[in-house]
Amino acid sequence: MASRHIISVANLFRGLLRNHLLIVFAGTFGGQMAVAVTGPLMVRMLGVDARGELAVAYALILISSQIGMIGLPSAITVFIARDRLNARALLRKFGGAYTAIAFASAVALSLFAATGWLVGDTLPHGATLLPLLALGVVVFMWWLMVSAALLGEHRFRQYAIARTVSPLLMLIIIAVGFIAHASPTPLEILAVFIGTTLMGLVLAYMLLSPARRASTSDLSPEAQVSGRQLLHFGARATADSAGPIDGFSIDQLLIAAILTSHALGLYVIGYAFESLPVLLLITVANVAGPKLASIEEPVHRLNQVRKWLLLSIGLGAISCVGMDIILKPVLIFAFGQDAADALPIARVLVYGGFFLGMRRVFFVIARAYGRPSIANTAELIGLATLLVLAVPMTQHWGAIGTAWALSAAGLVACLIQVALLTPVIARSARTAPAPQFAPPATDVPVH
After folding, report:
1. Is the pLDDT at 128 greater than 70, yes or no?
2. Which of 6, 140, 196, 263 is the most exposed place for a label (fewest CB within 10 A)?
3. How far from 127 is each of 61, 108, 265, 311, 406, CA to CA, in Å?
4. Residue 445 domain-assigned (yes or no)
């Protein structure tokens, strides 16, 4: 039995290297490599303190856009993949309302942050940043929705292309500025980030499947989807779609509120190395999610879940050990000797990234079984763990305490999902109908 599973996983791995997983990983990895090169350039241009200020602005955009979407990306991916909907028609139908919600949340949170209560004096340019933050939220929200639609349509090659464009453009602009010895402000870097994200959004929308003529009629599948259905599914999947444990950058906001910009800058440098295991596992989740959602037969779905889990654990473990081996020389080479204090933070976050990434894989499994509330519950418990642990640990141990708290939150979210998903999967397998063996088809009537 064990050897059969090993062989099937090996076959799956070889097949994936020829198609979707490699394609999505190539796009995601290419984008992340561009980010990895851009990060050290920004630190050298801005300094550690100003890089911390920029991290606060990024965090505000992330948290505002995630709150405004109310779990919409998960709903878009699942509905398009499951019901074979046309993405353009669906986005046109509901996109305007969600844009208004996201813009309202952007204005509210930006005004709140400008008071300095949450982030002290770490927010660059204070209230003058408000219009740029609001624009960034709307652009980033639409990027997440359109990329979710590409995954729902199984347009993995197009997703890979769109995923690479924005970070690559950002890298080119920052590299030119670095070579020209430019001295940008955090506000100017933020404007470049929003502009390149907008370019990637436009390209991603152009890569969606063309709208069908029937999609505009009252009888089209898209017309039958109500806003209440999307809201209901999205609300149940809000936590796993947004991933507030790390998606809201609460850890960085806490460091900004409790410590200094310099401490936040070191934490952001260390956080850059967490991205490899998380990147690999999110890539697996992005490919596995639409595929598992389209499988109706319980036994086949169970077999696929086992294969994806084994693949995820193997890739995650290898990436953590490999990153740990090269961590010190790469960090010093990329960020300079001044960033050496970020090394212990980076090491904790690399291994914490395994649990943060694995929880994303469990998210898509929960959705495939029609139980997004399981991922929701696990994420909320993990978020509570982060909030309970992060404040005292940050106060006592500094930024490395925050890293330990974030890693513990990811571990708790994984354990909760395993505990809640196991009986659901077992019950689904037990209630699967027995296979029916029909006689071979024939043109002669059987009497």
Report:
1. no
2. 6
3. 14, 12, 22, 47, 30
4. no
